[in-house]
Amino acid sequence: MVAFIDAQTIVTAALAHARAANMPSMTVAVLDAGGALVAFAREDRSSLLREKIARGKAAGALNLGVGSRSLARRAESHPHFVGALTALAEGNLVPVAGGVLVRDAEGGIIGAVGVSGHLPDADEACAVAGIEAAGLSADPGE
Fold this sequence. Notes:
It contains five helices and five strands, in the order H-E-E-H-H-H-E-E-H-E. A five-stranded antiparallel sheet has the order 2-1-4-3-5. With about 140 residues, the chain is α+β, with helices and mostly antiparallel strands. The longest helix is centred in the N-terminal third of the chain and has 17 residues, at about 5-20.
């Protein structure tokens, strides 16, 4: 499981990455392997749906065991299937980049990070920066 201290590091570093890149207001959610929220931050002026989007990106990655970049590709090639998965997940699956699995040293999934606020690739870069700052491995999908 993502430790609380690691989750705080992830959020802080992800937001620092966004600020260094002059991105708009961001939202970051860190979930443990069971999908429980461990850490969360929404910057001032981040739009209201960003929380659900960030959590949906992270939860979707956990629900299917792949980073949301992989889910985005699957959505392009199999839109009806991903639509059905989204319905089954009761909206806890957002198939765009920005949902990144957190892996331990052995490669096991210990959580996921979802970021929302900018373009998907930029959101993903923030998540990866946060995870790596905590000394963990980021898996955004292929």
